[in-house]
């Protein structure tokens, strides 16, 4: 069983920055592919960024050049650095851990971009 806890969300003005963290426990973290997803109010949950066990990254077009995903296997943590935030980045951000056999989600952290 994997337990994921997100943190770092909050209220930020357009153009600002936030760094989200997702701490994992109960597993060998390095064996999991990790990802960040987000769900705006009234909309579906969509991919933001992923990072594989080997460190390869992938981003949604809407965040390329603004967001950076990274992982620290020694700390069992994956990060999402979000810069140049826009109003449309407002959403609940979820952390995901997966292998071929299993998928785990965190509870989410709210990010609100507002002036």
Report on this structure.
The chain has 115 residues and is mainly beta. 0% of the residues lie in helices and 52% in strands. It has strands spanning 3-7, 10-12, 18-25, 33-39, 46-51, 57-59, 67-72, 77-82, 91-98, 103-105, 109-113. The strands form 2 sheets. Strands 2, 4, 5, 6, 9, 10 and 11 form a 7-stranded mixed β-sheet that branches. A 4-stranded antiparallel β-sheet has the order 1-3-8-7, with no helix packed on it. The mean pLDDT is 96.
**Beta-strand content estimate:** over 45%
Number of helices: 0
Low-confidence parts lasting 5 or more residues at pLDDT below 50? none
Order of helices and strands: EEEEEEEEEEE
Amino-to-carboxy terminus distance: 40 Å
Mean pLDDT rating:
96
Write down the oligomeric state.
Answer: single chain
What's the story with the biggest beta sheet? 7 strands, mixed
Helix content: under 10%
Structural class: mainly beta
Keywords:
115 residues, mainly beta, 7-stranded mixed sheet, 4-stranded antiparallel sheet
